[in-house]
Amino acid sequence: MTPSRNALAAPALGDFTGRQLLRLCEVAELPPADAVSYAKVVTQTLGHVAGQPLDQPPPDLSFLSDDHTPVEFSLSFTVGAAPELRVLLEPGCGEATTELSGRAGLDAVRTMGRRWGFSTRRLDDLEDLFFPPDAQGPLALWCALELRAGGVPKVKVYLNPAAAGRDHAAATVRRALDRLGHQEAYASLPDTGRPLFFALDLGDWDVPRVKVYLAHHDLSAEESAGLSRMSPGPERAGIEEFFRTATGSMPGEDLRLDRRPGQSCHVLTDATTGTPDGFTLYIPVRDYARHDGESLDRAVTLLNRYGMDPGPLHRAVSAVTSRRLEDGVGLIAYLALAHQHGRAPRVTVYLSSEAYAVRPPMTMPVQRTASAH
Ligand code: TRP
User: Fold this and answer.
1) What is the arithmetic mean of pLDDT over 74-86?
2) 4, 145, 249, 343: which could join 244 in a potential S-S bond, CB 3.0 to 4.6 Å?
3) CA dihedral (172, 99, 356, 5) positive or negative
4) How far is the CA of 92 from the centre of ligand 1 (A)?
5) Strands 262-268, 256-257: pairing kind
6) Å from CA of 1 to ligand 1 middle
7) Alpha-carbon distance 163 to 135, whole Å?
8) pTM for this model (two decimals)
9) Are 126 and 212 in contact (CB under 8 A)?
């Protein structure tokens, strides 16, 4: 096919997401030269699918986002600092099989390692567990980049514990933790929830983390507050309040996450204690709100409550989309509250690219049990 010379031709996936990223970098106060180099990294990491025009269907049914864009942004807020910008990518997007996608993902991460001078050894040591022949599942490898001034991001890799089948997911997590020196850790995790991701920090981290993500169907506010295994852990009341605000629960209403599950993440850093020293709760706000205006209001309420400036969030939303927030739901995908020993709490807002599609708003109120008259 000859490339179209029409000025109105659909932009390519890489150009579209790259421009979103450039605008977000401005919001995050990153130097323009770093922004340009990060936008290039996104295009390079996506590989050949970056050149695909957006009037073609998505390269595959990527589980990374609802409309299958293999890119998602997030802004992580802490008190008293500019929010940190991150981008999540699926390097193997568009490959014919999960196994090939995994190969492409490993290549992409190793290329980053050579470029930025970090070792991929911890990932290499797990290759047989997460990249079996005939790998299954909705992902093989995702990577997230935390974009810092200076042009060298911090790198996180997400793997699929169910790569060798769902029945093996728990055993895969246990073996992977063992290999990384966290022999005691598996027993300390909640025994509810389905292992969804296994994540590793690579590159220049003060304390590189290993993270286990669990999906929790039908989760309630109260149950969510019982999922932390940190010791000492965060206040239960704070977690419950976050759950209720993020889901838009009415006073006295016992809402459960009966659409998309909530997720918990358990962070391991110190192999000697054997218990997690971080806990994050993820609420898939988009399945519990009518439209993104509602989701944004909840995010702003939470940021204000934690003493974080919501200004950058408003600017980030405009950097990613020009549509009215009431006209769709899913731009704001998740709201998360993260606790880690030795660090201030963080509120993170996940922003979809919506390169391919916008989910229409919900016309009916969400999840309201009819009140007795
Ligand atoms: N799209 C998937 C989901 O909604 C995976 C995912 C993407 C995700 N970004 C995330 C999960 C952020 C938790 C938090 O589950």
Assistant:
1) 97
2) 249
3) positive
4) 17
5) unpaired
6) 34
7) 5
8) 0.95
9) no
